[in-house]
């Protein structure tokens, strides 16, 4: 391929933030019709590179160009006008507006000056159909859940008919079937000549979607290589800078203790007579496809939603449904699926975001103790290897995967007895995933109950002592100990009604 095919490039690009060099003398180019994966640990610099190419950030030195035009001084709108469409790692939709309105945010179709609602809806339907998704374009985006919102973001980017399509972890909250759809769309637009940059931590997905992969480590490009011939082991070693540790086979230990938390006959919008028992000393996995009621189950258990009927018991005692604060006070903790909207306070420090779950532990006679906050936070930052310049750095400036680890740290700080984790490894790199699994195991060994919701069946099958499969808002199957096998869980989760 000739150089005239280059759609976007960075030459000797360096980008610094206070305390970190996010990109260091980077050379990078992507060509027409190519799907390029960006791989690297959390905090390696992938999103920074993407933001530079979309005009959301500017280099301190070096040059970024799109179709030969330097991006210095251009904003995201100017760069979009050059044909760049970007799906950022954090969702950027307006929850109160409808899917159709979001799809054309800022560029609503008009006829004779007036907003053309009919055309907007028709084009929105077409855009959703193009990515093979059946979502009502009139529903407010906020009602969709993370997976639905991610699909809308992708549809929005594809609808712009870009020359360069940039996707930063577009599938982090999607399950296998939706991931398949996204891969198909990406392959189709690439065949039409669009250049695609694609970030994901899932190697199997990278293999299906990408032609070449660029590995980034500590802000530097390690290598660019063809995906098909490189082994996963080789690529992971490049990402980490060392050979990955061999993973020891685990013995599963389903707990025989009486349930610490149980629910009977929960009925709500998405739940349809759900029964579930959570036992101390085990990691309980919840599997199921999009819309099966995974998140709703956790929300009902922790009291964030009040089911229309049904009963919840904590340590044998009936609890009032919907009593979130009381549940937290009685030792429950939950990491939400959508950390941006529900999980973190972006402008507050990493330390403050961690200790917020239990301020008593870091107070003296009712007054917050700065040193105690730093100490508690530092210990957890080390334990989970959270990459942050300082404990007090605003959490919003951390890379996505590191924000996710901080949200988990919060509940480790709280010392909850029952921990409900909704997609805790979303956007987390291979090494960090291990660390999170290890923490879950430590908690279970310590007699706590861990409930683990994930759209990646592989990790459930890897980590859990017991797995409950949801379908249509009910628990339809349960596997325990040696019964847990990847193929079996998968088959159960996706089986038809
Ligand atoms: N606005 C910002 N202010 C300060 N530091 C930042 C900012 N944005 C990114 N950083 C830092 O730059 C480094 C690279 O971050 P980046 O988001 O590019 O990582 P990433 O490879 O996308 O990681 P992940 O896989 O976790 O998304 C990190 O150390 C991060 O904390
Ligand atoms: Mg990122």
From TrEMBL:
Start and end residues of each ABC transporter domain: 1-243, 256-497
Coiled-coil stretches noted in the UniProt entry, renumbered to this chain:
none
Q: Which UniProt keywords apply?
A: ATP-binding, Nucleotide-binding, Repeat, Transport
User: What SMART domains does the record tag this protein with?
Assistant: AAA
Matching entries from Gene3D superfamilies are given as: P-loop containing nucleotide triphosphate hydrolases
* Repeat found in the keyword field: yes
* GO MF entries: ATP binding; ATP hydrolysis activity
Q: Does the keyword Magnesium apply?
A: no
User: Which PANTHER family does its entry note?
Assistant: CARBOHYDRATE TRANSPORT ATP-BINDING PROTEIN MG119-RELATED, GALACTOFURANOSE TRANSPORTER ATP-BINDING PROTEIN YTFR
- Name of the protein in its database record: Monosaccharide ABC transporter ATP-binding protein, CUT2 family
């Amino acid at each position: 391929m000739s150089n005239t095919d280059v759609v976007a490039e960075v030459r000797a690009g360096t980008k610094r933030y206070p305390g970190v060099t996010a990109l260091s003398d980077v050379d990078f180019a992507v060509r027409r019709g190519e799907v390029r994966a960006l791989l690297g640990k959390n905090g390696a610099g992938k999103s920074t590179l993407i933001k530079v190419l979309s005009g959301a950030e500017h280099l301190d030195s070096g040059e970024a160009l799109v179709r030969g035009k330097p991006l210095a001084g251009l904003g995201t709108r100017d760069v979009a006008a050059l044909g760049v469409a970007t799906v950022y790692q954090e969702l950027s939709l307006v929850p109160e507006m409808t899917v159709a309105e979001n799809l054309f945010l800022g560029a609503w179709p008009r006829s004779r000056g007036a907003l053309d609602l009919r055309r907007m809806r028709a084009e929105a339907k077409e855009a959703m159909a193009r990515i093979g998704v059946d979502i009502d374009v009139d529903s407010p985006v906020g009602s969709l859940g993370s997976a639905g919102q991610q699909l809308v973001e992708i549809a929005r980017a594809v609808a712009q008919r870009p020359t360069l399509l940039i996707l930063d972890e577009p599938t982090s909250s999607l399950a296998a079937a939706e991931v398949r759809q996204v891969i198909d769309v990406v392959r189709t637009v690439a065949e039409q000549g669009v250049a695609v940059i694609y970030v994901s931590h899932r190697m199997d997905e990278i293999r299906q979607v990408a032609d070449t992969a660029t590995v980034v480590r500590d802000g530097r490009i390690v290598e660019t290589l063809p995906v098909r011939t490189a082994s996963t082991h080789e690529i992971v070693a490049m990402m980490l800078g060392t050979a990955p540790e061999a993973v020891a086979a685990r013995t599963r230990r389903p707990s025989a203790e009486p349930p610490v938390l149980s629910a009977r006959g929960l009925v709500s919008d998405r739940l349809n007579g759900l029964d579930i028992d959570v036992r101390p000393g085990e990691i309980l996995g919840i599997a199921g496809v999009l819309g099966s009621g995974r998140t709703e189950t956790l929300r009902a258990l922790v009291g964030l939603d009040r089911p229309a009927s049904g009963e919840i018991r904590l340590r044998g005692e009936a609890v009032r449904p919907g009593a979130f604060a009381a549940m937290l006070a009685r030792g429950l903790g939950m990491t939400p699926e959508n950390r941006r909207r529900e999980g973190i306070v972006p402008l507050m420090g990493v330390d403050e975001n961690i200790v917020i779950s239990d301020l008593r532990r870091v107070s003296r006679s009712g007054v917050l103790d700065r040193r105690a906050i730093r100490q508690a936070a530092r210990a957890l930052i080390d334990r989970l290897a959270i990459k942050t310049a300082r404990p007090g750095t605003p959490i919003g400036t951390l890379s996505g995967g590191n924000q996710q680890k901080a949200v988990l740290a919060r509940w480790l700080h709280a010392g909850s007895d029952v921990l409900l984790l909704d997609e805790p490894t979303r956007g987390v790199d291979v090494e960090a995933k291990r660390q999170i699994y290890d923490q879950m195991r430590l908690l279970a060994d310590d007699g706590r109950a861990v409930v683990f919701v994930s759209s990646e069946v592989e990790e459930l099958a890897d980590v859990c002592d017991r797995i409950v499969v949801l379908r249509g808002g009910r628990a339809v199957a349960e596997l325990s100990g040696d019964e847990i096998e990847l193929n079996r869980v998968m088959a159960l989760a996706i089986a038809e009604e």
